[in-house]
What we know:
The structure holds two protein chains of two kinds. Chain A is of the alpha/beta class. Chain A has two domains: about 180 residues, Rossmann fold; about 140 residues, Rossmann fold (3-Layer(aba) Sandwich), CATH 3.40.50. Chain A contains twelve helices and 14 strands. Chain B has two domains: about 300 residues, Thiamin diphosphate (ThDP)-binding fold, Pyr/PP domains (Rossmann fold); about 30 residues. Helix content of chain B is about 45%, strand content about 10%. In chain B, strands 1-2-3-7-6 form a five-stranded parallel beta sheet, sandwiched between helices. A two-stranded antiparallel sheet of chain B has the order 4-5. Chain B is globular and about 70 Å long. The interface between A and B is medium-sized, with 32 and 34 residues. Chain B: Its cofactor is thiamine diphosphate. Chain B: This is Pyruvate dehydrogenase E1 component alpha subunit.
Amino acid sequence: MSIMTYRQALRDTLRTEMRRDPDVLLLGEEIGVFEGSYKITAGLLAEFGEKRVRDTPIAEEGFTGAAIGAAMLGLRPVVEIMTINFSLLALDQIVNHAAKIYGMFGGQARVPLVIRTPGGGGQQLGATHSQNIELYYAFVPGMKVVAPSNPADAKSLLLAAIRDDDPVLFLENLALYNAKGEVPDDDTPGEIGRAAVTRPGRDITVVAYSRMAAVALTVAERMAQTDGIDIEVVDLRSLRPLDRETVVDSVRRTHCAVVLEDDWLTYGIGAEIAATISDGAFDWLDAPVRRVAMAEVPLPYAKTLETAALPSADDVTTAIRQTLASVGRRAGKDIP
Amino acid sequence: MQLLTPEGERVAHPHFDIDITPDELRGLYRDMVLVRRADRESNALQRQGQLGIWVPLLGQEAAQIGAGRAMRPRDMAFPSYREHGVAWCRGIDPTELLGIFRGTDHGSWDPMATRFHPYTIVIGNQCLNAVGYAMGQRFDGRIGDGHDSADAEATVVFFGDGATSQGDVNEAFVWGAVYDAPVVFFCQNNQWAISEPMERQSRIPLYQRASGYGFPGIRVDGNDVLATLAVTRWALEECRSGNGPVLIEAFTYRMDAHTTSDDPSRYRLADELEAWKLKDPIERVKAYLHRQQWADGDYFAEVERESDALAARLREYCQRMPVPSADRMFSEVYANGSSAVSAQRDEFLTYLSQFEQTGGER
C-alpha cells in the first residue's frame, strides 16, 4: 500500500500500462509538452516519446476518431479529452462509431479504446466547462462508463479500462485530483460493472459515484457522530454496466435510500437508480427514494451562485434526515 | 502584407495602400495604448484575486484595432473571448468586460445596439453563428449591386489558429462559400493554441486554406495596424458588394499566456518572445508618428495620462461591482420563465431567508 493522490494514481497507472504493453498510446490536446491541463500525463512524453504520447490538433472529433481507427487495428489508445464538456464535439464518433462498430460489423473489429476525461463543477469554469454529462454515454449500449471516487479505484479501474476490449469512458473529476488515499501496490485490474459498499451501515443506503461518493463518506462519518445513525454508502464505480444487485441488496437491508448525483435531476442517473430500487426492493422500502442533485440551471460562474447551485454535504445531510423522518412516521416511531 | 515595418518605416503595396491622416494614425495609436493598458490592468486584477480569470490580448492590439476600425457601424462582429480590442472599437467600455471575468455579469452590452456579439468561450462555434448571420444579411438584401453602398453591411468573425482545426470552423468555411455569405473570417494566428504550436494545426499557411473552399485568403502582418486596417476594409467591401467570404490571416503573436491559468514558460522559449518584442505593434506606430512629426512628446504624455486614468477607473469599478443576487441564477434559464425553475427559485430563497447572511453580501 502507498498513500497517493488520485492524480498520482492515474499517472502511475498510465506509466505502468505503457511499460507493460507497447500497444498502449496516448492522444490528446496539451498532453505532451504541457503534460496535460491537469498534469495527469506529466513525465510521460519524456519517457515514451512522441510516438506514444501524441499532442493533437485542437480537434476532439478528429483525435477521438483517429483513436477509434487505431483501436480497430489492435492498438490500445488512451484518449484524454481535456474536460468532458469537449467530448460533445466527439459525440458522433463515440456514440455512432466507437460504441457500434463491434456490433454493426458483425464482431469483425473490437474497439479497445479508453477516453479519460474529467467532469465536475465548482472550479469557476462557467456553464459550458463545468458539466457532468457522463449520462450521455452511460445511455449507450456498447459503451462502458466507469467513475472512480478514490485513488485506489482510479488505479484498478484504469487498469481494467485499458485492458478491456470495449470502448470505456473513464470519468475523472476536477475536485478529486488532489484527493489522497491508500493505493495497492499490485497491478490487479478491478472489475468493471461492480459497485462497492464503501461503508457498511444499517439505517439508510446512500448511493453515489465519483465526487459525490466521496461526499457521501464524509457525511456518513459526520452523521454517525451528530445524529447517531449508521449510513451505508454504495459507490457505483461503474455506470454501464450498472451493478443493480449491490444497490438492491443494500436497500433490502436498510429499507430506505438517498441517491446523489452531481448533475441535473430530471432524467438523471438518480432516476435510473430510483427505478432500480423500485424494481428490486419495492416491498422492502419504508420511505420514498430521495434524490440530491444540482439546481436545474446552467451552472453560474459567480462563486457564490456556483456553490449554491451544486449539491453540497449539507444538502445530503438534509435529504438523509428527511428520509429517516418519513421512515419514522411510517413506522409510528420517533427516529431522529 | 505590410505597410509599416517594425522599425516604423512606411512601405507601399500595389493593392492595399492606404491614405492615412495624422489624426487617424494618432487615433489608432491611442486605441492600441489604451486597450493594452486595460488588458494589463485586468491581468493584474486577476493576479490580485479580483477576477476569476483573464484572457490577455497583449501583442494582438494592431490586429484587433485594425480590424475593429475597418468596420462600419452597421457591420456585425462575432468575437471569441480575447477580442477586447475589437470590443473597444465597438464602443464597449473595458469595465463592461470585467463583470464577465469577475462573475458578476454575463456581458452587459446590447449585441444588436453595439453590433458586437457576446463573447464565445467554446472554441470556434461563433464561426458558424456568424455565417448564419451573414446569410441573413444577404437574404435580407443588405449587400450587393444596386444596393445603396453606404447602407450595405457585412460580418466579421474572430477566431484563432487553434480553432482552424475544429470541425465547426471548417463547416463555416463551406457554408460561407456556398451561400456567398458576406462574412470576413478574421483569424488571428498568434502561433500558439495554449501549448500547441502552429505546426500542430496546419502544414500550409492558414490563409491558403481559403482556396480549397473557393474564396480568397490573404495573410497580413497582424502587428501592423495600417496593413490590418487596409486589408480588412478591402475584405469588408468585397463582402458588402457580394463577393464574400474572405479569409484574413493576421500573423501575430500571443505575448502573454493563453489565460491567467496558463504558464507559457513550460512550452516555449524566451528567445521567441524576445524576437517578437522587436515587432511590437505600438512601438512602430510611435516611431512613425515621431518621424513624420505627427506627434510630439506632449501628445505621447497625454495618451499616457489617459491610460493611467483608464487603469484607475478599471480598478475602482472592479471592486465595487455588486455580487449577483441569489435569484439571478434562475432568472435567465428560459426566455419567458418556467414554473419548474420558479419553484426551485422560491424554494431556494425560502431556504436562504432562514439565515442572516444570504451569501450575496460581502
